[in-house]
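In the laboratory, one determines a bound structure by crystallizing the protein with its ligand and collecting diffraction data. In a computational setting the workflow is compressed into a single prediction: the sequence and the ligand go in, and a structural description comes out. We illustrate the idea with nicotinamide-adenine-dinucleotide.
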Amino acid sequence: MQSVKLTILGSTGTIGESTLDVISRHEQYQVVALTANSQVEKLYQQCLQFHPQYAAMVDENSAAQLAEKLKKAGLEISVLSGTEGLETVAALDEIDTVMAAIVGAAGLLPTLAAARAGKKILLANKEALVMSGHLFMEEVRANGATLLPIDSEHNAIFQCMPENYSEGLAHVGVNKILLTASGGPFRTQALDQLNTVTPAQAVAHPNWVMGQKISVDSATMMNKGLEVIEACWLFDTTADMIQVVIHPQSIIHSMVSYKDGSVLAQLGNPDMRTPIAHAMAWPERIDSGVEPLDIFEVANFEFEKPDMQRFACLRLAYEAMARGGTATTVLNAANEIAVDAFLNEKIGFLQIPQIIESSLTAVAIDEATNLEQVLKADQQARLHAKEMVLRNGRVN
Ligand code: NAD
Ligand code: MG
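The predicted complex, in structure-token form:
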């Protein structure tokens, strides 16, 4: 088998660790660069195990500490720092593949650097597409990069699409994408109890093990909203073509409905190593370490329509996508601030959608055709959302 050289952006996160787990099962994958924000010890341990040529940390002090530790251990690994360090390792000549697994808007610039360098991008960092889908897809096309979805739903949709889907969904006979959602931990919680839920309750996802931010996004269903927007860009379609389906078992990872009446689905145990291994080896298949699905044990599948009142974040995401331009940039930025404030117990759970809605009203929406417009909208939304948090989330 041909050897594959990779950079893993966000290697210390949940997706980063699952990627390294799949890599460790196969000879042909060679880790060239690993990156993290500030977790020195974890990145150091990964360097000991995978011997990359480069390690990059956003935080300067953390990078200096890492360099010191690596030197003491006698490892010759170049340590880079700052966002530029991440951009450099995402675009190295010696790599062909980049796993984009940084959480949030911080992933945009390094992932864009990978697109500009024409790499094969395994995209977990959905926020990059939500912030700047138009720009990002342009860079992918213009530089001959390949974009493969890691998000389990989008990976499932990709697997259920014909090879030539980029000629247009109508052209290939698709009439709907059915995007599944677990509904998170509060799907059946009494509405009047929602504002008193704690961060610990919100991050306790029933089926998936994930980072903190995406776990809160799953509880508000903003994660599904971001995924609707992500799917619009990946499959070049509009939000009205995407029906969110609550499927609490998280075994069907999404479906594609065709005009002849066929509905194709991808199933599997909820373990991110399946979409990761799929995208890493595509169009071949490799072992991922995931247990085969026991269909008899699963036995029952349930499906429900999402309640847009309970899940205001999902409604806001549909509205932002319909509005277009930087509306989704504002949605994403305000959500990041609100989720962080909720995790730090500065606001209640129900204030998350209030802060996002207020930001979408307060910040001027522009076209999103260049990076300046996108970054400006992102900054303005963050400022507004932070003000709302300072006022203890009260929107008045
Ligand atoms: P995580 O919080 O576990 O890990 C995040 C990673 O990003 C870490 O390596 C961290 O060091 C790095 N990071 C954080 N802030 C950074 C910054 N400012 N600059 C540079 N690096 C930074 O998150 P995760 O659950 O692994 O999710 C990563 C991405 O994958 C997110 O966009 C998420 O939406 C997406 N995703 C995750 C899952 C999942 O099951 N975990 C599923 C689908 C999609
Ligand atoms: Mg997902």
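The pocket of nicotinamide-adenine-dinucleotide (ligand 1) is lined by residues 10-16, 36-37, 39, 58, 101-103, 106, 124-127, 151, 208, 210-211, 213-214, 272 (CB under 6 Å). Keep in mind that any predicted model is a hypothesis to be tested, not a measurement.
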